[in-house]
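Section 3.1: Structural characterization of target chains.
Under the original work plan, the team committed to producing a structural model for every single-chain target entering the pipeline before any wet-lab resources were allocated. The record below documents one such target. The sequence was received from the expression subgroup and is listed exactly as submitted; it comprises 173 residues.
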Amino acid sequence: MTTKRAQLLVHQLDITWALFEYHLKDLDDDLTLWQPAEHTWTVRPVNGTWVADWADAEPDPVPAMSIGWLTWHIGFWWTTTLRHCFGGGAPAREEIGWPGGIEAAGAWLRQLKDEWRAELLALTDEELDSTARTAGLPWGEGQTLGEVAGWLNVELTKNVAEIGLVHILRAQN
């Protein structure tokens, strides 16, 4: 039986996801790869795969981000968290490529969202309060699974808002 806390997490996810779908319907590959500033992180084709810009230490100043990079980033932390907490282990960041277009990125993220949503709905309060699944997770060490799930909702909300902002900026240029 789904717990009220899991239902709340899924409700938050669904609200943010509706905003993502609102933005997604108007995106095309040109807009997705548009760079809003001189110093922008994006995704680039390298040897037949799409690779995301990355730095191990946060750069100063922090770069602007393309919608392509933002969609990769959502897919990166969702893939990592899902595989770490519910699968056979998280792949390395370098193994998580961008699918190579906004239509494919949307399909990839929908699949991850559906998988994450199903995993959340199956959790008991005891599992939400446990740190067993989050042990060793780079952004979840010492946090309960419920806390990590809450963080993922916040991170998704932030990234979706950034996608909307980049879309608005592009419309003005």
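The first helix runs from residue 4 to 24.
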